[in-house]
Specification:
By secondary structure, this protein is α/β, with parallel strands linked by helices. The chain folds into 2 domains: 115 residues, Urease, subunit C, domain 1, CATH 2.30.40.10; 305 residues, Metal-dependent hydrolases (TIM Barrel, Alpha-Beta Barrel), CATH 3.20.20. Helices cover 36% and strands 21% of the residues. It has 15 helices and 19 strands. The strands form 3 sheets. The protein has an 8-stranded parallel sheet with strand order 8-9-10-11-12-13-14-15. α11 packs across α12 and α12 packs across α14. The radius of gyration is 21 Å and the shape is globular. Bound molecules: zinc ion. The site of zinc ion has 7 residues, from loops.
Length: 455
């Protein structure tokens, strides 16, 4: 039987292609999970023998699916704790809780977090998992299984910490691993799960956690392993003044210079946060093609500061958006990060610091570039993966906003009429279709109560 072609027409299409073409109205044709055609007006006539699923997008805005460049899905089970702490105090109080996670709670948290990401327009997410308690089972595999179940495209990073408190790090010794265990598990994760192909749904990266929780040896060896395997590198960097002070005290230089000395700049690397870069650091990032995952809600929630997005973008640094873990951003909503990014950028740098369409770019093709996946996702162009969000803008909160892209970025979160990943529906009429939402919520509540010892 011939697979139906999906035709979306009647809505405004913001392609985010090289010239940021917008069609009002426009069409999108999806065949075999790929974009076959996109352009103005109605779709071209198809062979009458072809079965067609036709989506009436009148009153809607069609965009590429959003790309999330930084997350810790397991933290969905530890939301609402330490709600008034800064980063180091927040981490210090949460490490002992996270030391008790296992594959059960991680899988339930990941499924819930992924389900909500999908409901907020995300079609591709990365995850940075760096807590691997002994006896906790296959926690990385649990996140990959959850992404497959919910139906999102997934870049899972095998994170790590090897610098416990007894060796001068911030985390307690019970949540760190030894370097040999980490490197063996990292190589095994790449072998088991990494698919570099053009139709890939799962990729692996390596992600030592932060300068204050990993040794220089682990950073060097992780980079060697990643580059040998052809996978990407990620870590937290320049998130707080405390981290900057830690690096100057322990390494005698800024966080970015510490990473640069260890071979950690390049177009295969992206850093989460990047708030406290100086001008020299920004030039080094731009020259090397290193990307930044900007997490505005988490940064504000932890009082960490405001990322210099205008300066990073002007210098040519790839910038994407991240929700960060749900323990520091209880919303976990990707589309709302575009709004937060715009508001914070303008609060810091004035009205020209980030345009509405710049904000949508960071949420789509910008994020795809940060993940090294922009040849396949992040824009609506013939031949690319059909990862598509159809936002309904004809209901009360948005119906009279003249500019539909402004409605998406500046308005409240619109209902999602449809979300496709490789042409497959994940959300329809603002409900998940790949899983039962209340069942996901009930399971994470059950697991969270056991984890926190109050169930
Ligand atoms: Zn993070």
């Amino acid at each position: 039987m011939t697979t139906p072609v999906t035709v979306i027409e009647g809505g405004v299409v913001a392609t985010m292609d090289g010239v940021r073409a917008e069609h009002a109205p426009g069409h999108l044709v999806v065949r075999d999970g790929l974009v076959e055609a996109v352009g103005p007006g109605p779709a071209p006539a198809l062979d009458p023998a072809t079965p067609v699923d036709r989506v009436d997008a009148r009153g809607c805005l069609v965009t590429p699916g959003l790309v999330n460049t930084h997350h810790h899905l397991y933290q969905w089970a530890t939301r609402g704790l330490c709600v008034d702490d800064g980063l180091f105090g927040w981490l210090t109080r949460l490490y002992p809780v996270w030391a008790r996670i296992d594959e059960g709670v991680t899988g339930a948290a990941a499924a819930a977090g992924l389900g909500w990401l999908a409901r907020t327009g995300c079609t591709t997410t990365m995850d940075h998992h760096y807590v691997f308690p002994s006896g906790g089972g296959d926690v990385l595999g649990a996140t990959i299984d959850a992404a497959d179940r919910i139906g999102l495209r997934f870049l899972a990073t095998r994170g790590s910490m090897d610098l416990g408190r007894s060796r001068g790090g911030l985390p307690p010794d019970e949540v760190v691993e030894d370097i040999d265990t980490i490197l063996a598990a990292s190589a095994a994760a790449v072998d088991a799960h990494h698919d570099p192909g053009p139709r890939s749904r799962v990729r692996i990266g390596l992600a030592p956690c932060s300068p204050f929780s990993v040794s220089a040896d682990l950073l060097v060896e992780s980079a060697r392993l990643a580059r040998g395997a052809g996978v990407r590198l990620h870590t937290h960097l320049a998130e707080t003044r405390d981290e900057d002070d830690y690096c100057r005290e322990h390494f005698g230089c800024s966080p970015v210079d510490h990473l640069q000395k260890l071979g950690w700049l390049g177009d295969d690397v992206w850093f989460a946060h990047g708030i406290h870069f100086d001008d020299t650091g920004i030039r080094e990032l731009a020259a090397s093609g290193t990307g930044v995952a900007h997490c505005p809600s988490s940064n504000a929630r932890l009082g960490a500061g405001i990322c210099r997005t205008r300066d990073l973008r002007d210098a040519g640094v790839p910038v994407g958006l991240g929700v960060d873990g749900a323990a520091s951003n209880e919303a976990g909503s990707l589309v709302e990060e575009a709004r937060q990014a715009l508001l914070l950028a303008r609060a810091r740098g004035g009205p020209e610091a980030l345009t509405v369409r710049d904000a949508l770019e960071t949420a789509t093709i910008g994020g795809a570039r940060v993940l090294g996946w922009d040849d396949r996702i992040g824009s609506l162009e013939p031949g690319k993966e059909a990862d598509v969000a159809v936002w309904r803008l004809d209901t009360l909160p948005h119906a009279d906003i003249v500019d539909p892209v402004a409605a998406l970025v500046l308005g409240t979160r619109p209902p999602l009429e449809l979300l496709l990943v490789a042409g497959r529906p994940v959300v329809e009429r603002d409900r998940l279709v790949t899983a039962h939402e209340q069942a996901l919520a009930a399971e994470v509540v059950r697991r969270q109560r056991a984890l926190l010892g109050n169930g």
